[in-house]
Amino acid sequence: MSSAIQWVIKAFEELTPHELYSIIRLRNEVFVVEQQCIFQDADNKDQESYHLMYCQDDQLIAYCRLLPPGLAYNEMSIGRVVSSPAARRTGAGRELISMAIEQCYKYFGRGPIRIGAQLYLKKFYASFGFVETGEVYLEDGIEHVEMVL
Fold it and tell me: Is the pTM higher than 0.90?
């Protein structure tokens, strides 16, 4: 029996309350609880971003937001990349980043994409062509590095 996979991308004002709740819940589950990171997730960037949701059997299993140029960086950006612990090592993360890159180009045009990657994921992002562009820095107690595709 195969499971139903669904991609959904919406601007903030198009999100249903249930979709927004699922996004917040997944971000909190991973960033706050699992990574034990106390930070202000509501950063006033969601309202100007597109929200890419990867659902399986009507459950959100992976998510990221696509930020237009000038919101987080001069370049367009992919942020708040997260996969459910249950979806890890299934390829969902790879599919999410591939789709995110494709959707960035669709919504914002061809151009560089800058991310602030958690350092331990540097090789993962490099496999998509992202290149490290700066020094390692701490963000909310977690080592990060800026990378550009």
Answer: yes
Count H helices and E strands in the chain, helices first. 3, 8
CATH number of the domain bearing residue 34: 3.40.630.30
Residues shown for the chain: 149
Element (H, E) at 105: helix 92-108
Residue with tokens 């969902």: 92
**Phi and psi angles of residue 139, each rounded to the nearest 5 degrees, phi first:** -130, 115
pLDDT digits (tens, 9 = 90+) for 68-85: 999 999 999 999 999 999
The answer as to whether 137 is a domain residue is no
Whether 77 is covered by a domain: the verdict is: yes
Burial label for 85, CB within 10 Å (0-12, 13-18, 19+), is exposed
